[in-house]
Amino acid sequence: xxxxTFEEMIHVRIFHGSVTxxxxxxxxxxxxxxxxxxVAVQVYDRVYGFYYADRNKxxxxxxxxxxxxxFQNQSLQEWEDIVQLKKETVISIPATEEEMQxxxxxxxxxxxxxxCDYSFWGERCASNCHRLLAQLGKVKxxxxxxxxxxxxQLLYVLKREAKKNGYTINTKxxxxxxxxx
Length: 181
Known about the structure:
Layout: E1 8-15, E2 18-20, E3 38-43, E4 46-52, E5 69-75, H1 76-82, E6 88-95, H2 97-112, H3 125-135, H4 144-147, H5 151-165, E7 168-172, E8 178-180
Antiparallel strand pairs: 1-3, 1-6, 2-8, 3-4, 4-5, 6-7
């Protein structure tokens, strides 16, 4: 897709992986630890994220007949409540109205009926985001295993693209009782 007039921003919102600092009293466990975290995409005032439907039923390989996936559709305030104590980096990418509408339509359709399964060796939050950004020409396409296997890896790729393309990066610190990536 090629568009030239940028009026809007796609905000890729990544909360970082973390582990509890010893002796702090924080016992919350995050899936993935340092390699965990989550990637969501803000389109206008909604935040969409690809997620597993059941933590205990994450497939190793994609299973189209028994998908264990959902697309989250949250208000900006709902997202802010989720990441209140988390370290979060937001990469803001210029987009045209047409690109924003395309992304919104993709997410709205997938909220109703996810097109793919959430699986370890298949699509996950980071790889789903990378694939969509590559389709829009915002990042170079490539292997999800090399560019977006987990949120921290996608963050590295997006920071490199941001430097090259002038995307804005903002990071807020997380809870001091945790060690953040």
